[in-house]
Structure formats: structure tokens, C-alpha cells
Design a protein that fits this description.
alpha+beta, 16% helix, 6-stranded antiparallel sheet, 127 residues
């Protein structure tokens, strides 16, 4: 399935959508040194959140989708050099509102979980 949203996003920062399909998406993020929060190589949580957010957006896959709210849990730390896979599934659709469940994994270990409330707008949010 073709992507219709977030087409100009830098995959080095939020990952690459590898399995977008109707209502689902998988995003892989290779963590790199500029993502480190300190000398131990701890990846700043914002990059993991970014990959999860991107997975939610690509699961909805509409040009005018925006994030309205998110309830998330960071379950395990991520270190530079690890690959994260964010898996998103649209679980509810009510008018313009989409509820998307996202889990991010390092191998088989879950590192992040969240519920993203997305909205499909009639026109671009900046229009």
C-alpha cells in the first residue's frame, strides 16, 4: 500500500514504514549516536515516541492526519545501535477520530506501549 501521509519526514529520525497497510503499520528505527541523551548511549525517549507516532500516522495513512493526544509508557531503556520496531493498529474509528494502539519492540522485548488519538482533518492543519 502506498503512503499518503508524512511524506517529507526524515526516516533517520523517526524510522521507516516497512509494512503500511489498511489500519496497520510497522516502522523500524535504527538508533544512531545523535539520539544519545548521555555518554552511556541511552536513546532519548523522544526518538522512540517519534517512531511510535509515525507508526500511528502511517496506520491511519491520510494526508491530513494529526495527533491529538497520546497516553504512553516507556517500559525499557533503548541504547544507541539497537533497532526498534513500532507496530501500530487502528482499533477504533468514530467520524474523524482514530484510536491507534502502538507497541515498540527491541527484538521480542517490548520497550514502549501507547494509545494515540488521531484526527483526520478536512484540510491540512496549517491551511
Amino acid at each position: 500500500m502506498d503512503l499518503h501521509t508524512h511524506l517529507a519526514i526524515d526516516p533517520q529520525l523517526v524510522g521507516r514504514a516497512v509494512l503500511p497497510e489498511a489500519g496497520r503499520s510497522v516502522v523500524t528505527l535504527e538508533t544512531i549516536p545523535v539520539m544519545a541523551a548521555d555518554e552511556t548511549g541511552l536513546v532519548h525517549g523522544g526518538f522512540v515516541f517519534g517512531a511510535a507516532d509515525y507508526a500511528a500516522m502511517t496506520a491511519v495513512n491520510h494526508p491530513n492526519v494529526v495527533l491529538g493526544a497520546a497516553e504512553v509508557k516507556f517500559l525499557k531503556p533503548v541504547q544507541v545501535g539497537e533497532v526498534i520496531e513500532a507496530r501500530a493498529q487502528v482499533v477504533s474509528e468514530q467520524g474523524r477520530k482514530r484510536v491507534v494502539e502502538v507497541q515498540a519492540f527491541r527484538g521480542e522485548q517490548i520497550v514502549f506501549s501507547g494509545t494515540f488519538i488521531c484526527f483526520v482533518l478536512e484540510k491540512h492543519v496549517l491551511s
